[in-house]
C-alpha cells in the first residue's frame, strides 16, 4: 500500500520557501490505481516525485508497504513524459537500462516484456527509428523490466494523438490486470484520469491540497469509455476542476 500522511513539500528555505504541496493525506491499496489531476503547476508532479523518493517531503511521511520512503526504491518504477530513451542505445538496451546498470541480466524476462508490448521485431532499432507511440511503449517496457510493485507515471502519454493514446491506455490496462502492480498517474487529461483511475484525486491550485476525491468503481474494462458511468465521471471531474478555478 502507498500511504501519504500530512505531506508537505517546499522548495527553498526560510522566507524564500515556496510551498508546492500542502498537507496531503491519501492512500492507494495494493494492486489499485489512483489518478492525480489538477491545474497546471499545482504540484502534481512534485507529489509524484516525492512518492518516487526523488524529492524529500518537508513534513509528514510517505510509506510504501509500510516502509518509509527515504529515496528511490528498487520496487518502484517511474515513467516520464518523454520516455527518457537514450538515443545511442537500442530498444532492448533502453528497455533493460535499469537492470543493466544493476548488472542484472535476465534476458528471457526482458524478451518476454518486449514481446508483451509488441516490440520484439524492433528490439535492435534505435529511438530515432521509432514512432512516438513505440517510444512510449519502450518506456513502459523499461518500467516493467524490474517487476515493480508500484508504477508511477507523470503524463506518460502527453502530446500523442487521441487514437495512439487510447491504444496505449488499453495496453496499460491489460498490463495492470496481468501484473497486479499499484499505480499512480499524473495527468491533465480528464478522460485519461477517468479511464485509468479507480480513484481520482482532484488537486487545488498551488500549493496542492486535496480538493475532491472521485471514486470510479466501474473502471477496468476496455469498453468503459462507451459507458454512461464513464461519462458521468468525466462530467464530475470537469465540474470539480472548474469549481473555484
Range of helix content? 25-40%
Q: Which outline best applies? A: globular
Output the CATH class name of the largest domain: Alpha Beta
Our Rg estimate from Cα atoms comes to 18 Å
Mean pLDDT: 89
The profile of the biggest β sheet is: 6 strands, mixed
Low-confidence blocks of residues? none
Task: Describe the 3D structure.
The chain has 245 residues and is α/β, with parallel strands linked by helices. It folds into 2 domains: 168 residues, P-loop containing nucleotide triphosphate hydrolases (Rossmann fold, 3-Layer(aba) Sandwich), CATH 3.40.50.300; 63 residues, no CATH class. Helices cover 33% and strands 24% of the residues. It has 8 helices and 10 strands. The strands form 2 sheets. A 6-stranded mixed sheet has the order 6-7-8-3-9-10, sandwiched between helices. A 4-stranded antiparallel sheet has the order 2-1-4-5, covered by helices on one side. The longest helix has 18 residues. The protein is globular. The mean pLDDT is 89.
Produce a short descriptive summary.
By secondary structure, this protein is of the alpha/beta class. It is built from 8 helices and 10 strands. The longest helix has 18 residues, at 162-179.
Topology:
Elements (H helix, E strand, L loop, with lengths): L1 E10 L6 E11 L4 E5 L6 H9 L6 E6 L2 E2 L7 E4 L11 H5 L1 H5 L5 H10 L15 H13 L5 E5 L7 H18 L2 E5 L3 H7 L2 E5 L6 E6 L12 H15 L3
Helix pairs in contact: 5-6, 7-8
Structural features:
Rossmann fold; four-stranded antiparallel β-sheet; 8 helices
